[in-house]
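Here is the promised in-class demo. Please do not try to memorize the tokens; focus on the logic of going from shape to residues.
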């Protein structure tokens, strides 16, 4: 049989070796026992895992059956880790997902704890192994209902619910690209974010004619490095699509003539060959593919220790936290703004202790032991977006917060803020507007009445929000959302030019959001770290808090499954303390706003991270 190599001028990066005519590769290209299989997967060492009318069967490289699980099943998918293989399938009668551990060396199949019974009719399922090496399962219903579950040991936890295309019979996940691929039988192939954190996005991979190249919609899928193989709805053409430079580009289709009913085709990958199942069993298509696997940048992943109770408002509500310290470290409080309600107060276990319904607060900051009017006071200050004012709150020794005043700013769209406690005494507030304007106020106290005096104004080119003052060095760090982090003098009497600390680029992805400074108690002013929320990629950058502002690393916050806590994403504000708060927080605590609450879905909240985990992951001093 004559062979040719079909290469696309548009896709010089790869090509596929296949037949020039419709005749399939001879069935003896695969072991005869595989021909009964409805679905199959190649195993390390040359063995096979098959799903047929007898059940799930394990064969070694010599074709000897080593073990089986008698079951009527469908939707087989696998993940490989050395000689250990995880397989998941759906029991046909109950549609309950059943995970199985495949010990290739021992030749054993071991049933693991099943998933709960689905609440809808499942048409497609597929596995995903994330950057934390946790295994997830996507379940997709005929009407588009979908769920993402995560498993660890015997634990099976619902991560989130999704809305996916109806009539989806096939799905696969590209782990490296963190991409869920879904085949909608009468329409085409769609790509979604497999990562649960964040809003996610959808891309068109391929559509049916006349909108695209597929005849009769889309059938089975197989993930290729940097691309995907798709059988069309008629199961008579094989399509290859590469993902390059953010675009999906098609390879010329090949005729395969499988002669099966619509939706009955299957596709699998075996080293350098694609395996296709049709009316006459499985056939192999030798393949040369030089597309490169997509991978995400390696970033340390840290598990949170605790989380706050969720907001009482849905949607984008939580924004910025601030930490108040008690004489008894265990009684510390976390203040958090709710942009739709007011100010919330939490304890170190995340339980809400107070709610002050004072309107749409955005940013908040805290300073303690402030000498004002002959007294020492603890203050929180927040920006109020309903009336563009600056709000003051007192905090008593028991951690109880009370409103103490509000001051108009004259700004048109008040946004972020931070406090500054100069060495000379007192306290000052930096307030900003979405138009880039910054105002610096001195806060005073006469008797029981607070005052606010404008000291200076300055402006950055575009929208800012987060900022933090380095009290020990008299410096202000501010985030310009689309450009980066700047620094300037915090002393209103001695202003200096803005200096770029960290631009948006290799380490930092817009929007630039929350900022905080970590410095150990009693440490010299030329020590410490600046932590920045890199909202665009849901990561956090740690750099020296003094010139030349060396970047020490980045991290993300992932799952803590035993505690039932999800990771963080699209973070607005954050705060940090180096004070020993006991237990996991002996080296301090980082509090992070979470833009999307998962495990399961819910209103936004704040996550607590042990600083010792950050220091260990980034090898900090």
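The designed amino acids, position by position:
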């Amino acid at each position: 049989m004559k062979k040719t190599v079909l290469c696309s001028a548009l896709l010089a990066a790869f090509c596929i070796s296949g037949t020039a005519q419709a005749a399939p590769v001879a069935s003896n290209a695969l072991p005869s026992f595989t021909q009964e299989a409805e679905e199959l997967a190649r195993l390390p060492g040359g063995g096979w895992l098959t799903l047929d009318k007898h059940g799930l069967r394990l064969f070694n490289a010599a074709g000897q059956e080593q073990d089986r699980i008698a079951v009527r099943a469908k939707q087989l998918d696998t993940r490989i880790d050395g000689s250990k293989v995880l397989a998941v399938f759906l029991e046909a009668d109950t549609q309950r997902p059943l995970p199985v551990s495949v010990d290739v060396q021992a030749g054993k199949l071991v049933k693991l704890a099943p998933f709960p019974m689905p609440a809808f009719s499942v048409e497609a399922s597929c596995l995903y192994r994330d950057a934390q090496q946790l295994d997830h399962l996507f379940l997709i219903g005929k009407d588009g209902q979908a769920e993402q579950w995560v498993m660890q040991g015997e634990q099976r936890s619902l991560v989130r619910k999704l809305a996916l295309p109806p009539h989806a019979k096939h799905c696969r996940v590209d782990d490296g690209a963190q991409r869920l691929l879904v085949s909608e039988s009468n329409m085409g192939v769609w790509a979604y974010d497999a990562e649960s954190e964040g809003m996610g996005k959808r891309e068109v991979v391929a559509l049916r004619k006349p909108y695209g190249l597929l005849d009769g919609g889309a059938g089975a899928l197989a993930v290729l490095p940097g691309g995907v193989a798709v059988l069309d709805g008629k199961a008579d053409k094989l399509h290859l699509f590469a993902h390059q430079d953010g675009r999906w580009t098609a390879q010329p289709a090949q005729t395969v003539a499988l002669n099966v009913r619509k939706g009955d085709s299957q596709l699998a990958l075996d080293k350098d060959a694609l395996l296709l199942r049709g009316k006459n069993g499985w056939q192999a298509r030798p393949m040369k593919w030089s597309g490169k696997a997509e991978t995400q940048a390696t970033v340390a992943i840290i598990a949170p220790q605790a989380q706050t109770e969720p907001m009482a408002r849905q949607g984008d509500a939580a924004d910025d936290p601030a930490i108040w310290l008690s004489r008894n470290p265990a009684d510390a409080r976390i203040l958090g703004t709710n942009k739709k309600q007011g100010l919330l107060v939490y304890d170190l276990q995340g339980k809400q202790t107070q709610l002050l319904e004072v309107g749409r607060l955005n940013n908040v900051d805290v300073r303690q032991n402030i000498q004002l009017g002959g007294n020492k006071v603890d203050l929180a200050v927040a920006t109020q977006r309903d009336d563009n004012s600056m709000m003051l709150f007192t905090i008593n020794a028991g951690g109880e917060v009370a409103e103490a005043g509000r001051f108009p700013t004259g700004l048109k769209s008040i946004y972020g803020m931070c406090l500054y406690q100069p060495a000379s005494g007192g306290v000052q507030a930096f307030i900003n507007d979405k138009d880039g304007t910054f105002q610096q106020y001195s806060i005073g106290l006469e008797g029981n009445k607070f005052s606010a005096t404008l000291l200076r104004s300055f402006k950055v080119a575009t929208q800012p929000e987060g900022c933090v003052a380095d009290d020990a060095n008299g410096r202000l760090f501010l985030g310009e959302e689309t450009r980066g982090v700047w620094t300037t003098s915090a002393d209103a009497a001695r202003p200096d030019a803005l200096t770029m600390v960290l631009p948006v680029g290799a380490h930092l992805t817009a929007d630039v959001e929350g900022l905080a400074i970590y410095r150990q108690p009693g440490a010299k002013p030329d020590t410490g770290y600046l932590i920045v929320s890199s909202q665009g990629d849901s990561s956090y950058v740690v750099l020296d808090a003094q010139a030349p502002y060396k970047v020490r690393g980045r991290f993300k916050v992932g799952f803590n499954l035993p505690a039932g806590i999800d990771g963080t994403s699209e973070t607005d504000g954050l705060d940090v303390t180096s004070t020993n708060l006991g237990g996991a927080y002996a080296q301090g605590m980082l509090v992070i706003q979470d833009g999307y609450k998962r495990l399961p879905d819910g209103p936004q909240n704040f996550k607590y991270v042990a600083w010792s985990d950050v220091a260990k992951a980034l090898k900090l001093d």
